[in-house]
Amino acid sequence: MQMISASFLAKALWGFEIGGSWGGSAAQVEMGYKLAMTFPVTFSLGALTIPAHLIFEMLSYFLGYHYYRYLRARQGDVLDDEGRIGVIVGGILGAAILSKLLGLLEHPEQLRATQENLAFLVASKTIVGGLIGGLIGVEIAKKVMGISRSTGDLFCLPIILGMMIGRIGCFLQGASDGTWGHPTTWPTGMDGGDGVLRHPMPLYEIGILALIWLLLVQLRSRLTLPEGHLFGLFMSFYLGWRLVADFMKPNSLVMPFGLSAIQIACLLTLTYYMWVFLRPTTRSAANDGNT
Question: Where are the transmembrane segments (predicted)?
Answer without folding.
Answer: 42-64, 85-105, 117-141, 153-176, 196-216, 228-245, 257-278
